[in-house]
Amino acid sequence: MDYNKRINVRKSEYVDGSTVRKPVYEPRRRHDRVYVEGRRVRNTVLGEKHKEKLDRYTLSSVMGFVMACTIIGMLIIANITESTKVKDAQGNIVLLENEISNLTDENENIKYKIDSYIDTEEVIKQAKEELGMVEASDDQISFYKKTKSEYINQLDDIPEK
Fold it and tell me: Cβ contacts of residue 4 below 8 Å, gap of 6+?
């Protein structure tokens, strides 16, 4: 069996219900060979349709298509450029946030160092000697709970209980 017959067997009906038919082979049709300017060209219906499609493309339609593709390409490039700028800006924001965090930590460390230089014993000594202040005794100190909120106003009345 040659190649053409095998292809035709696959395309033909072989089994119909419970009966088996003998396959009918249709040989391939050879296309008439046509020569144009010394080259062999197939003279088929598909070739003629293809030529008709090519005749529809005029210079203005091709130029319009090229212009549309160029504009779309330029828009894609602009979009990629803008998204790159946004990503760079986001990276800069992260760097600045890290810098702010580092500066905040540094400020807290400096504030702690400043607070550690204040000698509370010296403050108590100056308050007693120069200002005539005395420490409160245990019976003078009273503790109470604020029920409305955690914020305590110094000018509020002190509750009795």
Answer: 27, 28
Decide: helix, strand or coil at residue 24.
Answer: coil
Q: Residue 36 corresponds to which tokens in the numbers above?
A: 């144009």
- State which of 23-32, 79-88, 110-119 shows the largest mean pLDDT: 79-88
CA dihedral of residues 82, 88, 93, 95 (deg, nearest 10)? 180
How many Å is the maximal CA-CA distance in the chain?
129
Residue range 16-36, pLDDT digits in tens: 566 666 666 666 666 566 666
Q: So where are the chain's domains?
A: 1-30
- Quick check: 40 and 34 in contact, CB under 8 A? yes
Q: What is the dihedral of CA 137, 139, 145, 151, to 10 degrees?
A: -30
